Amino acid sequence: MPEGSSDVPTEEIELVASGIPELDELLNGGYVRGRTYLVQGVSGTGKSLLGQHFLEAGLTADETVVYIHGEESRHDILVNAAQLSVDIRDAEFLDIGPGTDFFAEDRSYNLVEATEVESERFTKDIKQVIEDVDPARILIDPITQLQYVEQDQYQYRKRLQSLIRFLRDRQVTTVATRTITRETTPKATYDDFESLSDGVVNMYLDDHERRIAVPKHRGLGQVDGTHGLEIREHGIEVYPQVIPKHDNRTFDPELIPTGHDALDDLLGGGIERGTVSFISGPTGIGKSTTGAQILSGIAEHGGTALGYLFEESIDQFVHRSEALGLPISEMQAQGSLHLTETEPLVRSAEEFAQHVLKQADKHAPDAVFIDGLSGYKISLQGDNQRLVRRLHGLTRVLKNLGVAVIVTDEADRLTGIPKATSTNTSYIADNIVFLSYVEVSGELDRAIGVIKKRLGDFDSRFHRFSIVSGKGVVIEGPFDNVRGIMQGTATSRMQDGDHRTTEQP
To answer: Which CATH number among 3.40.50.150, 3.50.50.60, 3.40.50.300, 2.30.110.10 corresponds to the domain 255-503?
Structure first.
């Protein structure tokens, strides 16, 4: 051996596609050739299907693959996979589950003899098929089939170590599945195979919400956290969470006029590129109309916008906006506005974010309109705190792209401003426009004001406004003679110096 050389070979990592490109993203490129991976979760999470995608990717790459199964027959596996457009008919199958003869025959093994016989049979059959077929990929579904036939945990670990070394020596990439109970978590059921595996993929199913995570991946690392997962007509879809990147983009706070002179005056000239604006207020006050007014102004100045509707249909939004004189249909026809209606409870926050970013890449919008935040939390899967964190990630990425984001948010009180946003998301907002009802002299008025603007000056007074057919949002002037709008108690200052206080409903 030449002087200075090492007797320890340097292994060159070769990546292997999982069959799901977005899972490869979570794995920092994919599985590693010749290594062993554990996929685990409760029943119904899609473990077998994920493994079948892995085998199908191998067949597509003209590799030889083996499916070692113990719970379903080959016929049932192929039928079920075909229902989700997964074709693994050319895989080599090895059934290590008990056949019908096990139930029919009268065997007189004692416990130790039975496990010894079955264990040796499994080992021999697996070794034989690997030597005969020489596969590049193997799916063992489930790995616990081997555990059931070992005498004890010590023998099971020895068998696993031997199997993994045998597979690695032959550079076979292996995915094994394991079912855990609903009363426990993957962490609580940590076992020998998990420690021996080069990577672990956890799959979750909770309240009809599917999630996926990669807590371990030797050599390459992984994208941490949980991510969206759906099983649809073409199999498994994975949606990684959107994580903002810190780049060296030069911040350019270019103003985008809203096309509404009075609203621009309130906002100090408009809204800036790369900022997030919240339009908050109680139900029926005109939040969506104000948002549509801003979209109309952006299109009028030659800009492009994307709109996502969570609380009404596109037809209803268009009809209502056009009754107020906002040319939404014309904007759609010109391609300056693209509207998307989000169906209730069918997407994760990660899927929504990925969809928005794909549309943003396609249309290069000046603004993205999310109408509204309450519907976002209801229509998307997941707990409120995670949804808010995902919204934060999405808006940060859009800001980095120089896109102005506009979000409508519903306040839980008709009058006053108890808090800037409904879900403590004010830290996301660069601008907050608040709409409120106010009673003055026995009449109910609408008030609009800017209560936060990070960049530039703005009019800090509340103004009267109304929603007028054919005209849209009409801002009539400041409440110069009224105080206490933010507290929910309006005080009218009379010309003679008297004060009259009207309690709000």
So the answer is: 3.40.50.300
